[in-house]
């Protein structure tokens, strides 16, 4: 009994775990949207704000991904704070600095404004720094040590 050989190329619509990936995508998009929307209710009573709801969506996205063993794309992981699960948006929820590094040339330092956690991602000299990190909304400053504050 021989195995049947696969005929042709695989179907593009047959993605494994498609429903789970769609759910993760929805949770991420909803979290990004809620993070950008300001809360309209007054702060008299302790209520759940849109930022809190955004963080809970990211938490549930991480739980679903962990339970179903679906790996998130690194570009999605880089936009989420590991400590407080806030969506990192340059200029509002994260400050970005380009620091010099001996081993990598430059290192991008992302500091969450909610929990003050810093994440350092190498930016090798052979690769061009993405334009979104270079200058964001014209808010570029240079410190004495040569570090850019965006």
TrEMBL record:
Protein name as it appears in the record: Rpr2-domain-containing protein
InterPro entries, alphabetized: Rpr2/Snm1/Rpp21 (IPR007175)
Record-level GO BP terms: tRNA processing
Protein's UniProt keywords contain Zinc: yes
GO cellular component: nucleolar ribonuclease P complex
Pfam family, one: Rpr2
Family note: Belongs to the eukaryotic/archaeal RNase P protein component 4 family.
The organism of origin for this protein: Armillaria luteobubalina
GO molecular function: metal ion binding
Domain of life: Eukaryota
Keywords linked to the UniProt accession: Metal-binding, tRNA processing, Zinc
């Amino acid at each position: 009994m021989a195995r049947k050989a696969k005929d042709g190329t695989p179907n593009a619509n047959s993605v494994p775990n498609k429903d789970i990936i769609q759910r993760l995508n929805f949770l991420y998009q909803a979290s990004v949207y809620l993070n950008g929307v300001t809360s309209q209710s007054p702060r008299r009573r302790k209520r759940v704000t849109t930022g809190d709801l955004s963080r809970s969506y990211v938490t549930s996205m991480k739980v679903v991904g962990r339970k179903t063993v679906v790996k998130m794309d690194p570009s999605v992981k880089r936009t989420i704070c590991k400590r407080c699960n806030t969506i990192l948006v340059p200029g509002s929820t994260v400050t970005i600095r380009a620091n010099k590094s001996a081993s990598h040339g430059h290192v991008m330092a992302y500091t969450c404004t909610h929990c003050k956690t810093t994440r350092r991602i190498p930016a090798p000299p052979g690769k061009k720094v993405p334009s979104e990190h270079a200058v964001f909304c014209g808010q570029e400053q240079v410190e004495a040590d040569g570090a850019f504050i965006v």
